[in-house]
Amino acid sequence: MDRIENAQMNSLGTRKLYYEDVHQTDFTAVVMECVPDKEEGYYRIVLDASAFFPEEGGQSADKGTLNGQEVLDVSIKQGILYHKAACELPAGTQVTGHVDWNRRFDFMQQHSGEHMISGLLHSHFGLENVGFHLSDREVTLDMNGEVSLEQLRLIEQEANTYVWKNLPVNINWPTAEELTSLNYRSKLALTENVRIVEIPGVDLCACCAPHVDTTGQIGLIKIVNVQSHRGGVRINILCGNRALADYTEKQDSVWAISSLLSAKQPEVAGAVARAKEDARLQKERANALQAELLNVQMDALPSPEKVRHVLLFVGELDAIALRNAVNTLTGKYSGYCGIFAGDDTNGYRFIVGSASCNCQELADRMRRELSAKGGGSAPMIQGNVAVTADTLQTMWVSL
């Protein structure tokens, strides 16, 4: 894997064009090495120079192409960039690379926004960022202490205020001596080739990733979630176009809910709460009526002197009511007392009890003959079965 160390490359490995010009997306380079990975079925390509930022510092790698073929991933080891591709690019050939700018800029927005949130949490509350992840799907930052929702909203407001000020995002490579006088966040153990990203008055942090030129390019910064995590908090943020897309998606949902409930958009939460309470009350009324009907059905059953096993079919009813009804029946009938809630199309939930018969034996039979699911004990079983009422009645007659 490390044969490239013998190639004619500088002491820092691959020339990293993204550090020279973060906006450069097209470049030419010479292939220094192309090694096949037979197990994975791809090639690992090393160039003398590359504009591809690798997976590093919690951030996923850039996407793009080399000579028109997709770059599947980019990794870094000892300063050398390894480009993962499906096709061979022979050593010594010159290739043309292209970096997906839309994705690059999106990542720049997210990462710079994360610096602002982390920097402000550090300066206001002394919190340290102990984890960071940036991918196509999410941006998370882990802080080593608790922070309230109210405090986060104040941090979010301040961060966006600095966005609107369009502050410069400065990149510096201080000497080892200069580093000793800087009060910066992250990677404090490094003593050489430390890249410092500065947002004046907001953050000073060691970082290897591409960033925007000014805070105005970040666009909106929005904290979308926070949860406890390993003694601190994990915060999810969205910046720029991601924040706009998220707002649009949620706005569409609010519009839809507003229309369905005939409520003004700012009042949808209250309207949903009222609709939920109405639904609960309606369900209670329906259950009460269903219970009354169940009592009527039980009263209409043949007397215990005439039959031993009884079977009832009901509509949707809560489990407590079903269990109570079965308990009532087992106090009157000596055999299996079964209540099945549902219909032939969607199947049935059932509870079967008995004061003298072993319900587990019935459960075994229902599993064998009807593919029923469920279980229980000798006095009572419960579960689900997808057969017709006629099929169940036939079984009950045979008991």
Automatic annotation (TrEMBL):
Sorted UniProt keywords: Metal-binding, Zinc
Domain Alanyl-transfer RNA synthetases family profile: 14-234
Entry-linked InterPro entries: Ala-tRNA-synth_IIc_core, Ala-tRNA-synth_IIc_N, Alanyl-tRNA_Editing_Enzymes, Thr/Ala-tRNA-synth_IIc_edit, Transl_B-barrel_sf, tRNA_SAD
Cellular localization per UniProt: Cytoplasm
Main location: cytoplasm
Keyword Membrane belongs to the record: no
Database matches in PROSITE patterns: AA_TRNA_LIGASE_II_ALA
GO cellular component terms listed in the entry, alphabetical order: cytoplasm
Name of one Pfam family that matches: tRNA_SAD
Keyword hit for Metal-binding: yes
One Gene Ontology term of the molecular function aspect: nucleic acid binding
Cofactor: Zn(2+)
Source organism superkingdom: Bacteria
UniProt GO BP: alanyl-tRNA aminoacylation
Protein name, UniProt field: Alanyl-tRNA editing protein
Organism: Simiaoa sunii
Lineage of the organism: Bacteria, Bacillati, Bacillota, Clostridia, Lachnospirales
